[in-house]
Amino acid sequence: MNLSEVKIDLEFDKIISKLKTYAFSELGTEKADEINFITGKDMLLKELKKTDQMRYALVSGREPDLSGLKNIRDSLSKSRIKGNYIPPDKMLWVLNFLRVSRNVKSFIGACYKSDIKNYDTLFEISDTLFSDKLLEHNIESAVDEAGSIKANASHKLRSIRNDINDRADQLRKNLARILKKVSDQDYTQDDIITLRDGRSVIPVKVENKRKVPGIIHTTSASGLTVFIEPQETIGLNNDITELKFAEKREIERILTHLTEEISKYYNELMVNSDILGDIDLLYCKAKYALESNALMPVITEGEINILKAYHPILLHQLDKNKIVPLNFKIGGDYNTVIITGPNAGGKTVALKTLGLLQLMFQSGMLLPADATSELRIFEKIFVNIGDNQSIVNNLSSFSSHLKSIKDIVDNFNGKSLILIDEICSGTDPSFGAALSSAILGHFSKQNAISVVTTHIGDLKTFAYNTDKIENASLEFDSRTLSPNYKFIMGIPGQSFTFEIAKKFSIPNDILESAAYLLKTSSGTLEDILKELSESKQRYEELKRENDLENTRLTELTSVYRKKSEELETNEKKIIKTAKQEAERIVRDAKKLIEKTIKEIRENKDFLPKEIKSNFEKQSRELTASDEKEEGIAVDSQLVVNDYVKLKGTNTTGQITEIKDGLYFVISNGLVIKARNKDLEKIGGKEVRESYIRGNTSLNEDIIESKLDLRGCYPDEISSKLEKFIQDAYVNSLSEITIVHGKGSGVLRTEVKKLLGKNPHVAEFRLGNWNEGDSGATIVQIKK
Length: 783
Hints:
By secondary structure, this protein is an alpha/beta fold. Helices cover 52% and strands 16% of the residues. It folds into 5 domains: 3-132 and 265-292, MutS, DNA mismatch repair protein, Chain A, domain 3 (Orthogonal Bundle); 154-255, MutS, DNA mismatch repair protein, Chain A, domain 3 (Orthogonal Bundle), CATH 1.10.1420; 298-507, 3-Layer(aba) Sandwich (Rossmann fold); 566-695, SH3 type barrels, CATH 2.30.30.140; 706-781, Ribosomal Protein S8, Chain: A, domain 1 (2-Layer Sandwich), CATH 3.30.1370.110. The strands form 6 sheets. A 6-stranded mixed sheet has the order 10-11-12-8-13-14, with helices on both faces. It has a 5-stranded antiparallel sheet with strand order 18-17-16-15-19.
């Protein structure tokens, strides 16, 4: 079997016909008819990349303009024959050919310049295109867009045509005068001037022909009219004829000169013809890929793995949603697949899909399959599909089938793809099974890739018991007795013979008898397969339900994540606002302190009690105005942004979040979690007063609630820690933080020892995850 027969059996000719509908020119359609079956990896990869890059250009809104492209090879060949010239209409073809060559080269060059990576392979072929602006200009100067020679193609031609026009005008005037004269004498049949044999004549009634001096050129079909060239105009007609001969000679001279110029670039233009044909075909492949949603697969030397593949022809005939995509794997643990199942279940379609995809792949076409699909390069493809019986050659179906298999056996090798539909059918099933097993075993030992379909039940067992050979089937709904066309690897198919027979109303007694006969022989396997198939269908239904549930959970997770992000954003905004408010309070407090200290210095008679009284008075005045502005109702229900106080303490803050009955309160940069019963609502002024009381003193220092001892030696920290705790106690801080770092734990141990001895320390603990963890110690100060 040759490749042409393989292409016909797999209907690759229909793919070619579809490609040709996109072609700009005869060059493109010729290339489609001659499309190569590529067996070299480098060459195939290059061809696939060129197609994919042309597809990328179309997707990006870029399209090469090959309109007007014609096949000029015949004209180029004639240009090399001395004395020949290219006629004006074909000269226009040459001109358009040069224009297309230049435009395509410029187009792909611009694509490459803008995106080198995605046009590098396409650029390699276009960059060799020949273009010559001067040659274009010379042809444009002589030939118009209608394919005629321009009057100004040469000075001589312009002069000749001017003379022709002058003589023609004079001739028309003379004929008009003569025609009027003979018409007035009623000698004429019609008052029109016409041409006969390239000469201007007037129609004269036959009975008056001798009354008009001149030459009779012809008569009308009726014989009632003769066409006479008047004697008076013969000279002018002769002049025009001579001038037209001169015009023809000048045109031939111009065309001969242009043809000689073109012939100088014969080789370059012939190469251009080949390249433009290739580019036209690439455009066809890319357009086909776009319409088929086809993508570039991966070339592999190992396992073939085809994913979500569609039969290319069905894809253009049916709604894509009605086609079940094919997933197929072979070439790893097994090199032979036996597909079984009922008639009309999709076995042959699957076989043809594999073969057609392989032909397209090795022709440099993109595939209607997932881009991660992996295909191997084969040197040969063998196909046996359909009934090839021949009355002429006296061959039955089985004989023809065996003749085809003999051809495969004689010519295949380890780099062959073999596709056989209904292997060894048409004979005794037991003998057919034995012969099929031997043939497939022979193919497998040579490591050829073989895919066959069959109704022979024994081949299912053969595949199960034989290394490198695997069962497969297409899903069939036993309840509706209709195919689902989903390919299943590793599980043989059932025939559903009795079920289908029942569907077609075969009598029950016959079916029962057949079932009994089958059970006494080989019914066990079919029963197992039936149970397995039903179990798989139940599993698939459960899987679909699970997938739907997973999809729903994914959507809910996405919604939750979005809400969480929104809450986090709002929390950050609240914290930022709280910090800004705290900074403002500190600024106001500093101003108050500075004012008080200034008064102390100016009036030394101030007593400490008076100072404190004045300070608290001014502090109340400072916050009173704020309270009026805020207008807070302190007894309302607690909500986010409310100011609160932790009952039994001086700790105040602002609620930033309420979740699961817990209130998250920010206080001095720390987040405190508390229950509703532990909080009481306060006004903004009390927060400020609490802050001032806990963070100010009369020595102009702002008392910090955090002491950082990192970097200190153990013998250095005693005095620092004692002073810090003393300041905190004097200024009524309820809680402080000692930062000592994690490190080796030496500082943490020393801090713990000192805190245990200090009389102002009520209790202490290591920080939580949001308080510095084990790198910090939280200290409660006695009141």
